[in-house]
Amino acid sequence: MKRLFGVAASVVAVASCLSTQIARAADNNASSNTELTFSVSGEVRSAPTLLTAHLFAQAQRLSAVDAQKILNATIADAMKMASKQAGIDVKAGSYSISDYTPEHGHTQWTARQNIKLSGKDAVSILDLSGKLQSHGLMLEGLDWSLDAKTRDTLTQQARTQALSKVKAQAEESAKALGLHLIRLEKVDISSFQPEQPYEMLQARVGGSAMEAPQSSPESQVVKVTVNVKAILAP
Question: How far does the signal peptide extend, from start to end residue (predicted)?
């Protein structure tokens, strides 16, 4: 029994020694590895699918109540007119009331509210904007963009384009460094669509027939960036 116990103890000792050597070898291999971080991107361009018109109405009177009454009536008429147009999303936006007292004179109250028109039919948006200008609203700006479904599709295309570059870029970089690719350690994906500042227009007071405003479509860009950490070894 003592002899068997001694043999078993020897086996355990050898196994422990081998385990220690393997661990040391793994540590040595890990210490000789090189971390490479880099980024690649995919970019897709497309014609815009949405046009948004930014309008506002305002009224100025000696009384805050009177200013708001006039503004509310103007906005109500504008919303009623816009609601008759199929395919156009109409939203009444921020509402404000402010006062100004000149050095010599009475306090003036100004009430203001924004309206936003959005839709895929640019001709209808521009035509309605012109009609609303004739009814007392002022056009502040126009901007082109992508609808949600189109943006998601383009983002997927840009993501696929970026990811297809990852492995080739890692292997090419490893080769240039005299190393080879072991694995991709980490991959982070982020998408970005540059905001298009809307075209600022000189506001004109309505009251008479007005031609519809004009706006040329601007190409939209959807970009996806992939940040990668790769492990290289000799």
Answer: 1-25
